[in-house]
Design a protein that fits this description.
This protein has helices at residues 3-32, 46-52, 62-87, 91-100, 105-114, 121-140, 144-164, 172-180, and strands at residues 56-60, 165-169. Helix 5 packs antiparallel against helix 6. Strands 1-2 form a two-stranded parallel sheet. The protein folds into two domains: 3-41, no CATH class; 53-184, Up-down Bundle (Four Helix Bundle (Hemerythrin (Met), subunit A)), CATH 1.20.120.10. With 186 residues, the protein is mainly α. Bound molecules: heme C. Heme C (HEC) is lined by residues 58, 69, 72-73, 75-76, 79, 101, 121, 124-125, 128, 154, 157-158, 161-162, 165-167.
């Protein structure tokens, strides 16, 4: 065999191995996708993910997005504390936890900042915090039934916002452009 023939044979062998490896990979992904066959294979592709998620994008810088998610996890923790306290009729604890997700000037400023590139978001966020105030009010009056009903309304606001918006991480120049555009109409 000449060196050229060896080289060509080696190349074919390598291509074959790559094709085989690819097939195994595709089959693995296909198996994982069996539960949701409508999804395309490249699930790690963030562009595909954004296309599949039809909710309105909420542009945020990476730092803001991380901050928002941390707040959200704390909202969930507050709801958990409220439910635990309601179950044992500890209304002072209900009131305290509800205040954590209630309206305050600091909270309002943060919501305004988060929604600066997205018309409608801040209003929804502020309305949500106001519903949490009604949990605290009912708890303060020792009215467990009203506090539970108010919690249901608050959870409706969580669900309502999640149904509409998804985070979209943008770089700093994009954020600046989105929040300073004169035609933005906020
Ligand atoms: C005004 C809008 C809005 C309200 C109200 C809201 N959220 Fe969110 N929340 C968001 C957005 C936007 C995300 C990011 C969703 C995404 O990109 O998929 C999010 C994400 C989350 C996450 C995921 C956090 C993570 O680490 O990934 C949790 C948990 C959460 N929210 C809990 C809550 C709870 C509990 C409430 C109500 C007590 C609530 N949220 C109210 C907008 C909202």
């Amino acid at each position: 065999m000449t060196n050229a023939v060896r080289l060509v044979a080696g190349l074919f062998c390598m291509l074959g191995l790559i094709a085989l490896a690819r097939q195994v990979f595709v089959n693995t992904v296909a198996a994982e996708d069996a539960a949701s066959p409508a999804l395309p294979a490249q699930l790690s592709d963030t562009t595909t993910h954004a296309t599949l998620d039809a909710r309105t994008p909420l542009p945020l810088t990476a730092m803001m997005a991380e901050h928002q998610k941390r707040n959200m996890r704390d909202h969930l923790a507050a709801v958990q504390e409220i439910v635990v306290a309601l179950a044992v009729d500890e209304m002072a604890t209900v009131e305290k936890a509800a205040h954590r997700i209630g309206y305050s000037d600091t909270m309002a400023q943060m919501c305004q900042h988060m929604g600066a590139a997205t018309p409608g978001f801040t209003d929804m966020a502020l309305a949500f915090h106001r519903t949490a105030d009604t949990i605290a009010d009912a708890a303060q009056h020792g009215d467990r039934k009203a506090a539970t009903a108010a919690l249901a309304t608050t959870l409706g606001a969580c669900v309502g916002c999640h149904a509409v918006y998804r985070q979209q991480v943008v770089d700093e120049p994009t954020w600046q452009r989105l929040t300073t555009e004169p035609a933005h109409g906020r």
